[in-house]
Amino acid sequence: MATSTDRAQEIQKLHELIKDIDYGMFTTVDDDGSLHSYPMSKSGEINSEATLWFFSYASSHKVTEIEHHEQVNVSFSSPEQQRYVSISGTSQLVKDRNKMRELWKPELQTWFPKGLDELDLALLKVNINQVNYWDSVSSFSPKIINF
Question: pTM of this prediction?
Fold first, then answer.
């Protein structure tokens, strides 16, 4: 069983892997079993509970997919740094306005023109279960972090 120190080190490693990669592909499962991927900008950093946050419209199809199948994958890549990260976990819709204010960044105005005044604005919380990553440091041998 991992200690809290081990967990903190694993979260720090994941933070280092994706800290300079703003966009990932957020993959959901539809009712027919098909996979759908969406480019998404992460909001904030990974916290001590191993969660990621993304802004979304609550009425979007990806939210319906998450409500039916909570399993998701988020992949990040930085080919110039030879770094590839695949994060699997579960996701849920969160409509906490305080959390939205905490995570909001001005660049999101591009996709959400009304900003925090958008009534349909929500967050997708990803609870990370496992991370697979490949980087030039590990000579492309896949490494796994379990949370």
Answer: 0.88
- Cβ-contact 62, 56 below 8 angstroms: yes
**Hey, is 113 helix, strand or coil?**
coil
* Closest C-alpha among 55, 57, 53 to residue 18: 53
Let me know if 123 is exposed, middle or buried by CB neighbors in 10 A (0-12, 13-18, 19+): buried
Q: Average pLDDT for residues 49-59, to the nearest whole number?
A: 95
Q: Report the C-alpha gap between 110 and 124 in whole angstroms.
A: 18
Q: Confidence class of residue 80 from pLDDT cuts 50, 70 and 90? A: confident
Instruction: Report whether 66 contacts 56 (CB < 8 A).
Output: no
Place of tokens 């027919």: 32
> How much of the chain, in percent, has pLDDT values that exceed 70?
94
Q: How far apart are CA 78 and CA 88, in angstroms?
A: 18
Tell which residue, 147, 127, 118, 119, has the closest CA to residue 54: 127
DSSP helix/strand/coil, 137: helix
Torsion angle (degrees, nearest 10) of CA 92, 122, 63, 52: -50
